[in-house]
Amino acid sequence: MRRAAFAVAAGAMAVSMAACGSAKESGDKADSSKSAAAKGDNIKVGLLLPENKTARYEKFDRPLIEKKIKELTNNKATVQYNNARQDASLQAQQVDTMITDKVDVLIVDAVDAKAIKNSVQKAVDAGIKVVAYDRLAEGPISAYTSFDNEEVGKTQGEALLTALGDKATKATKIVMINGSVTDPNAAQFKKGAHAALDGKVTIAKEYDTPEWSPDNANSEMETAISAVGAKKIAGVYSANDGMAGGIITALKAAGVSVPVTGQDAELAGVQRIVAGDQYMSVYKPYAPEADAAAEMAVALAKGQGLGSVAKDKVSSSSVQDVPSVLVPVQSLTKDNIKDTVVKDGVYTVADICTAKYKSACEALGLK
Question: Which DSSP symbol is given to 104?
Fold first, then answer.
């Protein structure tokens, strides 16, 4: 796994999105920088994550971000955390609370990237810079970190074609079950997947799944099976592991076993890969993404620049050329579990190879 070296150089590059948001007078900016510098390591960072149905946020993202912020501030920073539980209105209230509590900087993974725009503006108006995490929030954000999301979708699509092998023809029917339309990442995954799949197979049915819900994905798969025919579906593009679980349940109920993709390398997804129920997942190393968010947030809170940490630029409809860190991803199959999630300490072999999966693990050499 490639990992970026994330070091933050003070004063290397002053980052301000004022031109795209609510501009402040230069004197106000100077006073703000002096105030930030005076705080030193005693900063308050707000952290808002979008939901808890997907295992990654509470298991990986939150603890990794909090740990890195503590490391960067000699354990003096305070992290104020909340989870929106897939409720955009609740997240807007949580932003208001962060503003009232006068956090110095806000890291936000938006439930709804468009709906969060007004809240981002309110935070910036209150002198709080915003780091968009994992999803590109609208509004005058100061920094962004995520994965190359079109590459994620392309990786999934190419893996499905590999799994289909000689069966991958224009007459071959697959089902696409994408993520939520409120998540801009879902649109990028979808675009990347279509780039890989279009013209090579026939997409018999396609769905955009509200809230990334496994239950909704299960219902969509059942509908697709009824419409297309159980024996006529050669494979399923699932945008993430949680939905893949619901999809596979529907396929098994119909007596169908076909390749299914996923994303996030959730433990249940990895175990399904071991068992042969799911073909692949996309392994996204959360540590470099979390580290980048922490590095940028701490730098912004201290009035420092982002030149040495943010090597990329990303634009949204609200703001152009946002300093960004885009982390590379990797296709995870039964052949490289040991060299990815086990090697990186995400899971131990014992975590994966419970009694139910013991024999399948032994067959793969997972010991």
Answer: S
Cα distance between residue 162 and residue 151, in whole Å: 16
Find the helix or strand (DSSP H, E) in which 350 lies.
helix 349-352
Strand-pairing partners, residue 327, are 147
Q: Is 160 left (phi over 0), alpha (psi -120 to 50) or beta?
A: alpha
Which is it for strands 322-327 and 312-314: parallel, antiparallel or unpaired? antiparallel
Q: What angle do CA 241, 312, 80 make, to 5 degrees?
A: 60
Tokens of 315: 């634009």
Give the mean pLDDT of 258-272: 97
Phi, psi of 303 (to 5 degrees): 75, 25
Q: Residue 28: is its pLDDT beyond 50? A: no
Both tokens assigned to 287: 């540590």
Crossing angle for the helix pair 241-253 and 214-228, to the nearest 10 degrees = 40
Print burial letters for 213-229: b (CB count within 10 Å at least 16), e (below 16). bbbbbbebbbebbeebe
Q: What mean pLDDT, rounded, does the chain reach? A: 90
Sign of CA dihedral 19, 148, 262, 259: positive
For residue 82, the cross-strand partners are 48
